[in-house]
Amino acid sequence: MLTKNKKILFGLIESMGFKPHKGQRAVLKAFLKFRFLCVVCGRRWGKTKIASMLVLYTLLEKDTKSICISKTYKLSKKLWNYVYKDVLRFYGAGVVNINKSEMIMTTPWGSTLELGSADNPDGLLGDTYDLQIIDEAATLKGMMWEQFISPSARDRKGTVVLITTPRGHNWIHKLFNLGQKLLDGWWSRTGHSFENTAIYDPEEQDLVKSQTDPLYFSQEYAASFVVFADQVYSDFREEDHVVTLDDMPNLKDWDIYASIDPGYAVMCAIQWIAYNKASGEILIYDEVLEKRLKYPAIIQNLRRREPKGGYAGFICEVAGNQRDQAGYSFIQTLEEDEWFLKKDYTIYAKRYGIIKGLNKVRAKLLNTKDEIHLKVTQNCTGTIGMFLNYHYPEKKATEKPEKDGVWDHPADTTRYFVEFIDYYENGTVEYDL
Ligand SMILES: Nc1ncnc2c1ncn2[C@@H]1O[C@H](COP(=O)(O)OP(=O)(O)O)[C@@H](O)[C@H]1O
Ligand SMILES: [Mg+2]
Question: Model-level pTM?
Answer without folding.
Answer: 0.69
